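Re-run with default settings, no changes from the original entry. Doing this only to confirm the output is reproducible before filing.
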Amino acid sequence: MPELPAEVVDHVLDYLHDDPQTPAACALAARVMLPTSRFHRFGELVLNGRCFGRLKRLLDAAPDLAPVVTSVRLYFSPMSIRAPLAILSQLPSLSSLGIGTTHMMDRSFIQNVSLVPAYVPHITSLYLLGPQEAGSLELISTLSSFKSLKEIALWGILLKPGEVLEESLQNVAPPLGLRCLKFRGSECAALVGRWLKAHVFHVRLESLHVNTRHHFDVEQFVGLSALWSDYIKDLDLIHLICLGARLVTIFHCQPSENRENCVFRFAFDDMYNEDNRSLPWISDILTQLSSPRLRRITLSLIVGNVDLHFLNSECAVHDLSSACFNEMRVLYWESIE
């Protein structure tokens, strides 16, 4: 092939990151394509029971592939967690790990997750994938065993009945470098928020991502916002139910002088109706977010396949004028779909 600068080849290959077959072919086409092709082909892996043996044989045959893998999403059988963990221990660059099981509501899920730090102690991003159920102290103790965590994501993690005393939370030390929390369909947001608040002098959250699909998600967000509104710099909210007035109350009650970036993604059933009642209160929410450090708001309105330009909703969008943002230097619209 014609000789091109390696940077140009890498840039072209970067566009193929979501097509695993093409990087595999490029790796065989020319040596200059091999490093970047391997990165996109093996950088992020999704593994289940049928893949573990093949991955082990591949690493045995090509050990230089091991440092390429940085992220793994692992789905294991309840009785076979140690075998895949032994394979993960061969990946020196692994920093992001998602863990789920092939069985929903597996009683041993959290117990098995607690085995992970012994095999891969340097994980910085941990994703627990439900639906699974855990005891409150059991969950907190397991999260605390990951000493290098910077990011925790809990998706569909439900809590067993039972209250946790503040003293119990104070006795479990969190990862000191933790900066980001992500929740989706989980009952444990308020619990994790209380746990970290008990160690506020050692842990400072900076980023919060919440997906509110149900009423209990909103209540969890209210509790978490009340605890950490003074510290969160980056707020990312995906709101998929029509509770506009409730959200206005949340932000009105929880001002913050430290918030720098906000991302809001709204999707409601009436978003694409001509007489929709959702869009007018979005401006009310945004006006209450102003702070001396606020630099950017990204707003996405998700309406399925309906084009806002053919609906009266377009007028409501344009009503969000610059007059609402006197204290902001940048108003950045990422997408209105």
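The mean pLDDT is 77. Residues 215-228 form the longest helix (14 residues).
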